[in-house]
């Protein structure tokens, strides 16, 4: 079974022994964890029957029935409080991830660790984790098939960032002067310049409002760039 870099990192971020994979699709991450031998129980959940049937076939093909079970249901609803210590949610937008967590607060409150890979609205996910008193313990950004992905691991505890750019681009990534984040920032600068050229030629109220939003975001991008490339004083 060939696993993408993104899904492999998601699996490698797991530190607990009991795990639920939400939106498991074909159960690639649960099977990867089973093969690693680092977990005892995995609950593979999906809202759709057909992917779950394929997941079950894959689980049986890898003789993983003793450690992986499948459950049909929406989000975290198939889970009970205290049933797992780690919850994985990957392959969804950030707003949907937040919505699923909000719908199952009892399960969320008894979870020690979240491993999340939101495809959109990553800053909103960071803010929400802090809101429900989870610390962002680990982050990694990758570029896979021309798409930037952020994978993060959160554990119980109070944490709050001081600057907006820490939520937008990730404090851990900024502090580590992450090479992929540098590439993302460079891409954002070019993208924003192209958008500005288009908006400057338009005189509508809506285009001018959008231009101001772009200019504000550009300042944050430049601030992040300074953080990434600054030389620390000895």
Describe, in plain words, how this protein is organized in 3D.
- The chain is α/β, with parallel strands linked by helices.
- It is built from 10 helices and 7 strands.
- It has a 7-stranded mixed sheet, sandwiched between helices.
- Helix 4 runs parallel beside helix 6.
- The longest helix has 25 residues.
- It is elongated and about 60 Å long.
- The model has no long low-confidence stretch (mean pLDDT 95).
Stretches where pLDDT falls below 50 for ≥5 residues? none
The biggest sheet, with number of strands, parallel, antiparallel or mixed sense and barrel status, is: 7 strands, mixed
Terminal CA distance: 48 Å
Category by helix and strand content: alpha/beta
Give the radius of gyration.
20 Å
The SSE string, one letter per element, is HEHEHEEHHEHEEHHHH
Report helical residue fraction.
40-55%
Count the beta strands: 7
Contiguous helical run count: 10
The percentage of residues in β strands lies in 15-25%
Strand order of the largest sheet: 3-2-1-4-5-7-6
Mean pLDDT: 95
General form? elongated
Topology (elements, then pairings):
Elements: H1 5-12, E1 18-22, H2 28-36, E2 41-46, H3 49-61, E3 68-72, E4 86-92, H4 94-103, H5 105-109, E5 113-118, H6 122-131, E6 134-144, E7 147-156, H7 164-169, H8 171-175, H9 179-200, H10 205-229
Helix pairs in contact: 1-2, 4-6, 9-10
């Amino acid at each position: 079974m060939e696993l993408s870099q993104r899904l492999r990192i998601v699996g490698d971020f797991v530190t607990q022994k009991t795990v639920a994979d939400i939106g498991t699709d074909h159960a690639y991450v649960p099977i990867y964890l089973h093969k690693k031998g680092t977990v005892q129980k995995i609950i593979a959940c999906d809202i759709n029957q057909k992917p779950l049937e394929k997941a079950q076939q894959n689980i049986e093909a890898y003789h993983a029935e003793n450690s992986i079970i499948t459950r049909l249901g929406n989000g975290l609803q198939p889970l009970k409080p205290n049933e797992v210590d780690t919850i994985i949610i990957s392959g969804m937008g950030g707003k949907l991830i937040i919505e699923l967590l909000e719908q199952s607060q009892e399960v969320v409150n008894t979870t020690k660790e979240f491993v999340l890979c939101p495809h959109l609205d990553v800053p909103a996910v960071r803010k929400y984790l802090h809101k429900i008193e989870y610390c962002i313990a680990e982050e990694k950004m990758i570029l896979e098939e021309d798409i930037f992905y952020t994978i993060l691991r959160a554990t119980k505890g109070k944490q709050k960032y001081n600057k907006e750019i820490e939520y937008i681009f990730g404090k851990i990534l900024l502090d580590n002067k992450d090479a992929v984040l540098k590439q993302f920032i460079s891409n954002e600068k070019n993208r924003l310049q192209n958008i500005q050229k288009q908006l400057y030629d338009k005189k509508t109220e809506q285009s001018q409002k959008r231009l101001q939003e772009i200019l504000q975001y550009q300042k944050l991008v430049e601030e992040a760039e300074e953080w990434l490339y600054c030389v620390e004083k000895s």
